Amino acid sequence: MKHRTNLFLSLIFSVTGCCMLPGCLQQDKTETAPQVCTVSTDTIIYLQEGEEVPSCKINLDFSYLKPTAENDSVSPRINAAIQKTLFGNAFMTMTPDKVLSTLADNYIRGYRTDVKGLFDADMHNGMKPADVPAWYNYEYQLNTEMKQGYNGVWNYTLTNFRYTGGAHPNTETTCLNIDSKTGAILKKNDVFNPKDTANICKLIMNELIKETNRRLNTDTITSLDGLQEQGILLDTYLYIPSNFLLEKEGVTFYYNHYEIAPYSAGDFRLQVNYDDIQPYMKK
Questions:
Q1: Domain 189-280: what homologous superfamily?
Q2: Which of 4, 39, 207, 212 could staple 270 via S-S, CB 3.0–4.6 A?
Q3: Class of domain 3-185
Q4: What is the pLDDT of residues 206-248, one digit of tens each?
Q5: Residue 230: closest CA among 207, 213, 205
Q6: Where are the domains of the chain?
Q7: CB neighbours of 249 closer than 8 A, spacing ≥ 6?
């Protein structure tokens, strides 16, 4: 369901006019198990009354845990830790609906700040709606996924897509691992032995070579030199990223655009199985 709201109306009306769509998914059959729920909002903001260009499209969803027992104190801690880590201290105690409305409000304010003055000036100088440049049209998408990972760990993934008038849109993914018993966010130093960094990077390098060969439909890349011929790892060394997921099948290491390769190469999800990486992980 989409609400088309003119930007000249108040910000409060614009945000509350969004459609909040809740949904919950039971993770297992245990009566006291928390549910993964999602709230969503989908709206379009226009700069000019009566015209459908330019516009700012906002499509957001946010996943969280809904306790199914009154004595569940861990789920609220997990939600607070996720919101603080992803969005900042100000979001820590917000309800999920409030998280979405605040994010939408911020995007609307940013859109007005970026383009409203320029657009008004262009229209004053005779620009017709049909001639509005494409960069006046912004788009924000935020998608999240929460699922049970390895051995009492929640996996949380946020994918943030933005087009704000540049040469191309930008997509950034953030991965979190949360201890299901304490609600603590697990950092890489909590999981991996620092003294084994070189060994872990060798395992990741093997997966990077496999993935590059798969994308190019070849088997000729066997070393760092071959990767660099494809523009990968030209300006950086391979490292253990802060973005990783302790999934059920293995540890997935996530590299966003530009981190180890040019934008054209895309992002990389490289999974190392537990049989190989377990010796280098903390117990």
A1: Heat-shock cognate protein, ATPase (3.90.640.20)
A2: 207
A3: alpha beta
A4: 999 999 999 999 999 999 999 999 999 999 999 999 999 999 9
A5: 213
A6: 3-185, 189-280
A7: 271, 273, 274
